[in-house]
Specification:
The chain is α/β, with parallel strands linked by helices. The chain has two domains: about 325 residues, ABC transporter transmembrane region fold (Up-down Bundle), CATH 1.20.1560.10; about 240 residues, P-loop containing nucleotide triphosphate hydrolases (Rossmann fold). It has 20 helices and twelve strands. It has a six-stranded mixed β-sheet, with helices on both faces. A four-stranded antiparallel β-sheet has the order 2-1-4-5, with helices on one face.
Length: about 600
């Protein structure tokens, strides 16, 4: 079972109404469009309602009693044709405007959802598979489009047609119209029962679809490892199990639709028609009942049940859309936001002095991964963080980059809390290079510039030269305009890292944060990187998380972390002399290199 399956919930009627109202609020900026749509839809329905009445007049007044002159008959035929044309035009316009409205609503919803995703903290992305996020922004919003384009249109049309049908039936015969009203409670009960079960089934189906997307994304991303370790059969079985679960949930939905939607409504409509015909048959023994009235009543009764049939057919789409919208809104309402700043507009980073003061931190609120961390990096100094996996090195980097909020202790830059600086100031002043750099689809130049609005090509080129990336870039077919495929897979890990270094230096940061930046680089590239790193660190405060100890021997201070505490600190020489944890790590790596 994936992490998602735990999210399966049943939406109550109140919750579904809340989701629907929230969706409808997206239509408020398009009030004029709504008015035009409703106007054209009303004209279309009025045209549809007038047709049976015209036919009724023709049957009763001309065919049966010949009370109409030829001119009146021609007038009826002309009116019939004009009304049909007007109905066709207004039907087209109403559908067009409503679907245009739906696309505008979903466009804005996707923009809002994506905007909210970018505001979420790293904890959300650590806990939520990317396939699930993609599913909510694509599959779930697509289901909402279907609701707007199909369901709401049919709902509006059904509402207006039902009212118009009853109005016309009351005009023809009040007693039969009142009799037809008796079927309304039965219809409401059927639809309520359907809603109760359908919301559960659709929610489960959507969750299984998210599981499918998550498994697909994970499998495609890790295809090299899958093939290297011969895991294809296992992945096929796991995917088959998830796919079977999705199939089972979908079949439950189909079975529910087959029982409670059109078949039930069709039987109810047939029963109502038989009852009305029987009533008119009995009434004919005591009163005159014209063929035109019977024809008109049957037509209006069909116009009463047909939109309900359409609505019931679209209820499955409606339920899917409500469930999908609730999932999208749940993601948008997620409170795992990125840390907020208590901004001091006058705060600027000038020197780059870093100080950690008694910082403790827990990811889950229970188990601390950092315990009372304190150290100082003076301007221009390099402080290296080393230690075994899980010792807390990356957590220190995550807190310093404000990926996670901390409550105990403080982190200071130039004597001011890191929380007092604006996000823009922090991002402009801190340059981050990760162990596995992310390269975007685009060009080499766009990856270095990252669409910075004022950065010139000369600055891009200067940054590439600074980190010794210029030579390999110029060997590419189009140089800096060389097209980069997804994640830069055509480049070696060293080349990707060089581009990431150039990207960082193009911003000319005051502080550098290197998260094992040379871990995946070959020896030849590492030599060039070390030369550029020396230039990069000059005049900049640097925090370097290091796995290869040979890369940080010249650091001004080395902090050795062990189980979330600073176990040792000092220069390379002093730590070697202590013959402690650092000494043992260094000896292990030295023996590994000799082997």
């Amino acid at each position: 079972m994936t992490r998602h399956t735990k999210e399966v919930i049943q939406l109550s009627a109140k919750e579904q109404l809340h989701v629907l109202l929230r969706l409808l609020r997206y239509t408020l900026p398009f009030k004029k469009l709504i008015v035009v749509s409703l106007l054209t839809l009303s004209i279309s329905i009025a045209a549809s309602m007038s047709i049976p009445y015209i036919v009724k007049v023709f049957i009763d007044e001309y065919l049966l009693h010949s009370r109409l002159s030829n001119q009146q008959v021609i007038g009826l035929l002309i009116a019939f044709i004009i009304i049909q044309i007007v109905g066709a035009i207004t039907t087209y316009l109403s559908v067009y405007y409503l679907e245009y409205l739906a696309l505008k609503v979903i466009q804005q919803l996707r923009i809002d959802a994506f905007h909210d995703i970018t505001r979420l903290g790293m904890a959300f992305f650590d806990e939520t598979p990317s396939g699930s996020i993609v599913s909510r922004l694509t599959n779930d919003t697509e289901a909402i489009i279907e609701m707007f384009t199909g369901v709401l249109t049919s709902f509006l049309q059904a509402f207006l047609m039902i009212i118009a049908s009853f109005v016309m039936m009351f005009v023809l015969d009040v007693r039969v119209a009142l009799f037809a009203l008796l079927f309304v409670p039965v219809i409401i009960v059927i639809l309520a029962c359907y809603r109760k079960f359908a919301s559960v089934y659709f929610n489960e189906t959507r969750q299984r679809l998210s599981d499918l997307n998550a498994k697909l994304a994970e499998s495609i991303e890790g295809m090299k490892i899958i093939q290297v370790f011969n895991q294809q059969q296992r992945l096929r079985e796991e995917f088959g199990a998830i796919n079977a679960a999705h199939y089972d949930k979908s079949m439950k939905t189909i079975q529910l639709d087959s029982l409670m939607l059109r078949p039930a409504m069709t039987m109810l409509a047939t029963f109502a028609t038989v009852m009305i015909l029987g009533y008119f048959g009995i009434l004919s023994f005591s009163e005159t009942v014209t063929a035109g009235v019977i024809y008109a009543f049957i037509q209006y009764m069909q116009r009463f049940f047909e939109p309900i049939n359409q609505v019931s057919q679209n209820l499955n789409i409606f339920q899917q859309a409500i469930v999908s919208a609730s999932r999208v809104f749940k993601m948008m309402d997620n409170e795992t936001h990125a840390p907020t700043q208590q901004e001091d507009e006058t705060a600027t980073i000038q020197q780059g002095r870093i100080e950690f003061k008694n910082v403790s931190f827990s990811y889950d609120g229970t188990h601390d991964v950092l315990h009372d961390i304190s150290f100082v990096a003076e301007p221009g100094q390099t402080v290296a963080l080393v230690g075994h996996t899980g010792s807390g090195k990356s957590t220190i980097a995550n807190l310093f980059m404000r990926f996670y909020e901390f409550e105990r202790g403080d982190i200071l830059i130039d004597g001011k809390s890191i929380k007092s600086y604006s996000q823009q100031t922090l991002k402009q002043s801190i340059g981050l290079v990760l162990q596995d750099p992310f390269i975007f689809y685009g060009t080499v130049a766009s990856n270095i510039r990252l669409y910075h609005p004022t950065m010139t090509f000369e600055q891009v080129e200067a940054a590439a030269k600074f980190v010794h990336a210029h030579d390999f870039i110029m060997q590419l077919s189009d140089g800096y305009e060389h097209q980069v495929i997804e994640q830069g897979r055509a480049f070696s890990s060293g080349q990707r890292q060089l581009i990431a270094f150039a990207r960082t230096m193009a911003m000319d940061p005051k502080i550098l944060l290197l998260d094992e930046a040379t871990a995946n680089i070959d020896s030849e590239t590492e030599e060039a990187i070390q030369k550029s790193l020396a230039k990069m660190r000059h005049g900049r405060t640097t925090l370097a998380i290091a796995h290869r100890l040979s890369t940080i021997q010249d650091a001004d201070q080395i902090l050795v972390l062990n189980k979330g505490v600073i176990a040792e600190r000092g220069t390379h020489e002093t730590l070697i002399a202590q013959r402690g944890i650092y000494y043992n790590l260094y000896q292990l790596q030295l023996r590994g290199e000799l082997l």
